[in-house]
Amino acid sequence: MSKQQANWSPYDNNGGSCVAIAGADYCVVAADTRMSTGYSILTRDYSKICKLADKCFLASSGFQADVRALQKNLAAKHLSYQHQHNKQMSCPAMAQLLSNTLYYKRFFPYYAFNVLGGLDSEGKGCVFTYDAVGSYEKVGYSAQGSGSTLIMPVLDKRLQSPSPLLLPSQDAVTPLSEEEAIDLVKTVFVAATERDIHTGDSVEIVVLNADGIRREHVELRKD
Amino acid sequence: MSSVELNQPKNSLSEIQRTQYPYVTGTSVVALKYKDGILMASDMGASYGSTLRYKSVERIKPIGKHSLLGATGELSDFQELLRYLDELILYDNMWDDGNSLGPKEVHNYLTRIMYNRRNKFNPLWNSLILGGVKNGQKYLGTVNMIGVHYEDDHVATGFGNHLARPILREEWHKDLSFEDGVKILEKCMRVLLYRDRSAVNKLQIAKITEEGVTISQPYALKTFWGFNAFQNPTAAAEGSW
Amino acid sequence: MFRNQYDTDVTTWSPAGRLFQVEYAMEAVKQGSAAIGLRSKTHVVLACVNKANSELSSHQKKIFHVADHIGVAIAGLTADGRVLSRYMRSECINYNYTYDSPLPVGRLVVQLADKAQVCTQRSWKRPYGVGLLVGGLDESGAHLYYNCPSGNYFEYQAFAIGSRSQAAKTYLERRFESFKDSSRDDLIKDALIATRETLQGEKLRSSICTIAVVGAGEPFHILDQDTVQKLIDAFEIVAEEDVPAAESGGADDQSAALEEGAPADQGAAPDEGVAPMDI
C-alpha cells in the first residue's frame, strides 16, 4: 500500500428526491430540502426547486455544485431568450434546452438528475424526465434522485398511466385531481423519508395551474 | 483516482503541477449567526501530515468592510485565495462609487472560483466559511473544494460538521446574545480540542456586525483532562488494544 | 458639408487639436430622433420620439431593456445602439453570474464608455454613431448617464439628445430642480411634456413616443401604448384649462434661456456653437 493521503473526487452526491406529476390543468413539482454528503447532513433547508420560467419549474438532485451551475446556466440562457424574443420560454422549449445543455457536457457531465414540470402553451400539465447526459422523455409523472427507487413504483401503481405503446398514443397526463395529486406527493415523500437517509427534513411543493403558482411546505422526519 | 489520471492530458504543454493532496492543513472553523451579526471561531494550528507544524496561524481574515472568511484545509491555497480577494476588494474600492461587494457577493465569487478550479481538476484544497453583515442583512455561508455551497444559521467545516453542529443544532436560537454566542462557540471548540487530534488550544473568535470586524487576540480554553475515559481510555473496552 | 484634410481617418489630429471623425460621429447623434431621460431619487424615466422611415414602415425600437435594473434610450444610428445594448445585456448577465447581484449602473457605463473610446484610437475602426441615455438603479440610488461616441460619459439629473432636443433641454433646465423629490407619475408627466417640446407642430400621441420606467420596487419596463395615451390625455385636459398662458410663458422662457446660453450654466447643456469635443 502506498502512502496514505487525502484524496479527492470532482463529484459528490448530495442526495435528495424530486417528484413531478402532470394533470389535465395543473402540474405539481416537489422535492425535499435536505442536503447531505455521505452520512452527514449539511443543511436541512436547501431548495432543490428552481423557477426557470413563468410556467416552468426544475427540480434536481445529485451533485449540488453541478446542479447550481446548471441552474445558473439555464437562467442566463433564459434571460438571453427573453431579450431576443420578448417572451417567456415555453415548458417544452425549456425541456429541449435542458437536454442540449446536459448533452453538451456529455464527457464531463453535470451529475444532476432532473425533473422538469410546468404547463404547456394550452395550460396542460407536462413533465419531462432526464438522465445526467441529456436523454429525456415527456411523461405524465416522474421521480428522480436518491429516493426515486422507492417512490417511482408507488406512482406507477397509483397513477396507472396508459401504456406508451398504445396506438394511437394517449395523453400521458394523470387522471387524478389536483388535490389528490398533492396528497399523493406528500404520501410518497413521507414514505421515502422512512427508508432513504438522504431524503427528509421537509418537502417543498410547487403547484402550477390556471390561477398561477402556489407553494406548500410540509415537515418530514429529521432523523 | 484512475478517472482523474485519464482526464489529465500528458503532452508537454500541459505538464503543470496540480494539488492532488494537501500538505499543510488547518482544521475546523465554526461560525454562527447571533443577534447583531456573525461570530466565527477557529484554532491557530496547522499540521504537516500528523506533525503540528505551525501554531500561530490566523485562519480567519476580514474581506472588505462587510465580510469575514474562515478556512479549513491547505494553507497555501488559502493564502492564494486571499491574494485573489485582496485584488477583488482593491478593484472594488477603486471604483469609489458608493457600491461595494457584500458577503453574498463575495460568497458567490468564492463559489465560482472553487467550482472553476475543480472543473480544471486543479482544486483549491479548502473548506471555506463566509460570514458578514450588510444593510442589516446577516449572511453566513460555506463552500468546499468542489464547489458545494449553502447558507445556514450556523455552519462548520471539517470535524466541526460532525462534532460541533450537533451542539449548534441543540443550542442555537436566532436572538443569541454576543456572550451566549461566544459560550456556544467555546463549547464547540472545546469538544473539537478534545476529540480532533490536529486541533490546538490556541484560538481566535471573530465578530462581524454592521459596525465592522473585530478579531480577538489568541487565547486558550480551560480544559480538564481528568476524565476517566481520558486517563484510562481502554478501561471500558478490555482487550481491544 | 465642409471638408478638410484632417478628417479622413479617426486617428489623425487636426492642428487645432480636434478629431474630426469623432466630431462627425457626435453629429450623428443629433440626426436621430430625440431621446429624453430624467430621474428622481428613486426612479428614472426614459422617453423617446418614434419616427417611421416611411409611410409604409413601422418605426425602430429606441428604448432597450438591459437588465431588470437598467434600461437605455438611444439617438443616432439605431444599429449601433442595438449592438451596444446587446453588449450591455451580456455584461449584466456575466456580472450576475459571478456575484449573484446586479451590476452597478455607473460601472456598466464606464465599461461602455471604454468600449466607445477604443474606436476613437484605432485606424481600422469607426466610432459608434449613437448616443445612449442609460438609466438605472443600484445601491447608491437612481442614476441617469449620457454616453456619447467620443467615449465620454456624464451623469445627469435630466437630459435630452437627438434632433430638436434643445427644446426639451430648455424645458428640463427650467424644471430639473424639483425632479429630485418628484413622484414617479410626475416624472413621467415631465418626460411627456419634454417629449412634446421636441415635436415640430405635431400633436403628442402615444403612437409616436415610447416611455419606460425603472425605480425602487419597479423593474425596468416599457409602458404599453394604452397607458401612455391615457397619461397624455390626462395632462392634456388639464393643460387646456390653464396652460395657454403657461405655454406662451414657456416660449418666452425658452428664448430667454437661449439668449443667456451657456453662462446660465446648467453645465450639462452643451452650447451648440462650440466644438462638440466639450461633450
From TrEMBL, chain A:
Its main location: cytoplasm. It is found in: Cytoplasm; Nucleus. Keywords: Cytoplasm, Nucleus, Proteasome. The keyword Nucleus applies. It comes from the Eukaryota. The keyword Cytoplasm applies. InterPro entries: Ntn_hydrolases_N (IPR029055), Proteasome_bsu_CS (IPR016050), Proteasome_sua/b (IPR001353), Proteasome_suB-type (IPR023333). GO terms for cellular component: cytoplasm; nucleus; proteasome core complex. GO terms for biological process: proteolysis involved in protein catabolic process. Pfam families: Proteasome. Belongs to the peptidase T1B family. Non-catalytic component of the proteasome, a multicatalytic proteinase complex which is characterized by its ability to cleave peptides with Arg, Phe, Tyr, Leu, and Glu adjacent to the leaving group at neutral or slightly basic pH. The proteasome has an ATP-dependent proteolytic activity. Component of the proteasome, a multicatalytic proteinase complex which is characterized by its ability to cleave peptides with Arg, Phe, Tyr, Leu, and Glu adjacent to the leaving group at neutral or slightly basic pH. The proteasome has an ATP-dependent proteolytic activity. Component of the proteasome complex. PANTHER family: METALLOPROTEASE TLDD, PROTEASOME SUBUNIT BETA TYPE-1. This is Proteasome subunit beta. It comes from Parasponia andersonii.
Automatic annotation (TrEMBL), chain B:
It comes from the Eukaryota. The keyword Cytoplasm applies. It holds the Pfam family Proteasome. InterPro entries: Ntn_hydrolases_N, Proteasome_alpha, Proteasome_beta4, Proteasome_bsu_CS, Proteasome_sua/b, Proteasome_suB-type. It is found in: Cytoplasm; Nucleus. The keyword Nucleus applies. CDD domains: proteasome_beta_type_4. One of its GO terms (biological process) is proteolysis involved in protein catabolic process. Keywords: Cytoplasm, Nucleus, Proteasome. SUPFAM superfamilies: N-terminal nucleophile aminohydrolases (Ntn hydrolases). Its main location: cytoplasm. GO terms for cellular component: cytoplasm; nucleus; proteasome core complex, beta-subunit complex. Component of the 20S core complex of the 26S proteasome. The 26S proteasome is composed of a core protease (CP), known as the 20S proteasome, capped at one or both ends by the 19S regulatory particle (RP/PA700). The 20S proteasome core is composed of 28 subunits that are arranged in four stacked rings, resulting in a barrel-shaped structure. The two end rings are each formed by seven alpha subunits, and the two central rings are each formed by seven beta subunits. The catalytic chamber with the active sites is on the inside of the barrel. Belongs to the peptidase T1B family. Non-catalytic component of the proteasome. This is Proteasome subunit beta. It comes from Parasponia andersonii (Sponia andersonii).
UniProtKB/TrEMBL annotation, chain C:
It holds the Pfam family Proteasome_A_N. Keywords: Cytoplasm, Nucleus, Proteasome. It is found in: Cytoplasm; Nucleus. Residues 6-28 form the Proteasome alpha-type subunits domain. Its main location: cytoplasm. One of its GO terms (cellular component) is nucleus. Gene3D superfamilies: Glutamine Phosphoribosylpyrophosphate, subunit 1, domain 1. The keyword Endoplasmic reticulum does not apply. One of its GO terms (biological process) is ubiquitin-dependent protein catabolic process. Residues 243-279 are annotated as: Disordered. The proteasome is a multicatalytic proteinase complex which is characterized by its ability to cleave peptides with Arg, Phe, Tyr, Leu, and Glu adjacent to the leaving group at neutral or slightly basic pH. Belongs to the peptidase T1A family. The 20S proteasome core is composed of 28 subunits that are arranged in four stacked rings, resulting in a barrel-shaped structure. The two end rings are each formed by seven alpha subunits, and the two central rings are each formed by seven beta subunits. This is Proteasome subunit alpha type. It comes from Parasponia andersonii. The lineage of its organism: Eukaryota, Viridiplantae, Streptophyta, Embryophyta, Tracheophyta.
